[in-house]
Amino acid sequence: MSEKSFQGNFPAPGQSTDELAEIKGAILAKLRLAIGxxxxxxxxxxxxxxAALALRDRIVHHWLTAxxxxxxxxxxxxxxxxxxxxxxxxxxxxxxxxxxxPVFEAALGDLGVDLADLRxxxxxxxxxxxxxxxxxxxxxxxxxxxxIPAIGYGIRYDFGLFRQIIAEGWQQEYPDEWLxxxxxxxxxxxxxxxxxxxxxxxxxxxxxxxDRTIWHPAETVQAVAYDTPIxxxxxxxxxxxRLWSARSPDPLKLDVFNSGDYxxxxxxxxxxxxxxxxxxxxxESPAGRELRLRQEYFxxxxxxxxxxxxxxxxxxxxxxxxxxxxxxxxxxxPSLAVAELMRILVDLHNFRWDExxxxxxxxxxxxxxxxxxEALETWPVELFERLLPRHLEIIYRINVAHLALADARCxxxxxxxxxxxLIDEKSGRRVRMGQLAFVxxxxxxxxxxxxxxxxxxxxxxxxxxxxxxxxxxxTNGITFRRWxxxxxxxxxxxxxxxxxxxxxxDPTQLKHLEARASDNAFQQKFRAVKYxxxxxxxxxxxxxxxxxxDPAALFDVQIKRIHEYKxxxxxxLETIALYQSIKDDPQRDWVPRVKIFAGKAAASYRYAxxxxxxxxxxxxIVNNDPAIGGRLKVAFLADYNVSLAEVIIPAADLSxxxxxxxxxxxxxxxxxxxxxxxxxxxxLDGANIEIRDHVGPENIAIFGMEAMxxxxxxxxxxxxxxxxxRSPKLSRAINAIGSGEFxxxxxxxxxxxxxxxxxxxxxxxxxxxxxxxxxxxxIDARWQVVPAWTRxxxxxxxxxxxxxxxxxxxxxxxDIWNVPVRGDFAxxxxxxxxxxxxxxxNRLADSPAIAGSLP
Length: 855
Known about the structure:
By secondary structure, this protein is α/β, with parallel strands linked by helices. The chain has 3 domains: 1-73 and 91-120, no CATH class; 78-89 and 124-178 and 185-463, Glycogen Phosphorylase B (Rossmann fold, 3-Layer(aba) Sandwich), CATH 3.40.50; 481-706 and 769-802, 3-Layer(aba) Sandwich (Rossmann fold). Helix content is 49%, strand content 16%. It contains 35 helices and 24 strands. The strands form 6 sheets. Strands 7-10-11-4-1-12-13-17-18 form a 9-stranded mixed beta sheet. A 6-stranded parallel beta sheet has the order 21-20-19-22-23-24, with helices on both faces. Strand 5 and strand 6 form a beta hairpin. The two termini are 17 Å apart. 51% of the residues are buried.
């Protein structure tokens, strides 16, 4: 047992001896009866599964109760459709939300097992790529916290997003085998199976005086349900995340097998299973694109069939579907829900077209996450026709009525008609999924105030003119339960001292920190918490990269997907310029810095992977140059995931949010970092604007061009040689890259980066460099005035309450879904829970099961 773990054979404060004994007994029973091991033979994984199953039993009781209550009350339900759910590890998250973390830690300790060790056994469920999937996970937790009956629908990928290995500076991708040891959280529902069809032909028949359309598919795949309980805060409500797995109705053709063609006998099963094999298959090839479309339709069809079945079971008819079901489409991936719901209503339930359309639009709503036209999915008509012939017909018919409305609004305007059409005729005839989701939804929301405004001016300008009032804003949020309480328990303990226990239920209580922001004694405590977290991260960097970093240095963090518009390239350019400046004047009083990068590049995104290589090549030179005396270090931490973020974020001093203005929809990493006391350096982009408005412009470092400046600059051209010529530091940094200073084994390795910086500066890396470099030197100056820096850091924490995902979900519930939420949550359950758990919560800050626990 770890020395910091709970000591002694007595209950944790706030827990009775009976409760402790009951949980110990439950864990031992699961170990023997569910795992089939006795204490002497059990491995760490066995103990983990036994403890998880014992916890799951307690969650299921709450879950079934919540389900029965919501159905008995005839409550409206939310169905959240997302191709990604980046839920991470669930064990300690569920323990914390159930209020059972201290007693489980004590029970396991008495059994000679360290909870921190068990946590490392749980793989991150990396069923998402980044912010989109993590947002879905936060929203699911907040819906449970606010007692909104909801189900999340997605795909149960056999392999999550690839496992990233950095070998000689290059990203390499390997399968993420998150299910290798099983998944104790999920419950398979073998009785919940739906048939999903592909291909074939469409026939029209006349029946009872009406024309009917019959789809004769060529292929059928079965969707099998797996449910994972999502626990709300205080364990008062539990919702389900239902993930679909694909299988063939005919898994083995015996006649083919017996003929000796063993591989061919299971070919249909392999084809079906490929749908749920891997998140985001490479879509550079026709086969990859087809698989991606198959994935999207598979999960949309299964999910809609499931929710329709649930609705009919409880309500008996579909005319009132929109009053009992709100379906949220998370990005364009579930856009096929528009056509599929129409197919179900018209073809299977004999609704007339106009009535089915009213029901569809009233039921569906769509969250847009991008201003990049190329990121709004489109599919070749030919592929659609081959794979989903009935849906293409439905889309054509929707488009006829839609274009008639466009003609009525702007008679004779051919360009307007082409702009809003669901079919792009200019690029080889493609179905526009973003347009389809817009037209088929009653509300379309952006995810930050700036993003929503820009949607009206850019990607959906003409659609907004045609359907005024549909676009609304719902700025993203994060769950404070994971990103503050679990990720930063020592800071949470400090907040409770100042703001009271009510801060655990009501984040607006963070405002009480403001009165202490300049208090010297409190500042010292606050800095001690940050230093503790930085020691944990420094240890992790040392173990993984063999790089020694000083926890007293400024930890400068950029953690996000590697993409040109997120501008990791700008960050590493400034790193090179800073390195050169330190070498020029080593006697100067430089602020020691650790530049920390983490993030994955899409497997087919060669330029982003080259940026990763550049970061690592620069790290190799900088970290081993004795001339700079260790005052600058660069660390790229591989395989970024939720658990790694939980260690990096509490330790960050500076949060890099430096996307090209007008290109980041919102961001949620910016919220997590600011909530944990990191100052933001960033552009006026996405939610940075609202963070500035809340924390105060003096407590954030804004630099660079604004969105309209970028538009103007691009119209003038992308050649940046004039900018480079006027900036000696930028010119010198680019020359160092181009001459092979950081790649002596291959001097031309980064020629394409140099070319883009000079002649194709689409993302304004060169154009914004001088402003960014100056802002970083301003950060140096602020860091050296310790009380002022600490005050700004405290005020960031104090003023972040608005960015809770609970606030975001309340807004969705009120403005889009029309569902009630739990009222004054703290008043309803907080008092009783405080009385039972208050002393136990004090121990979270010292629990090694929470702080700095990574494999």
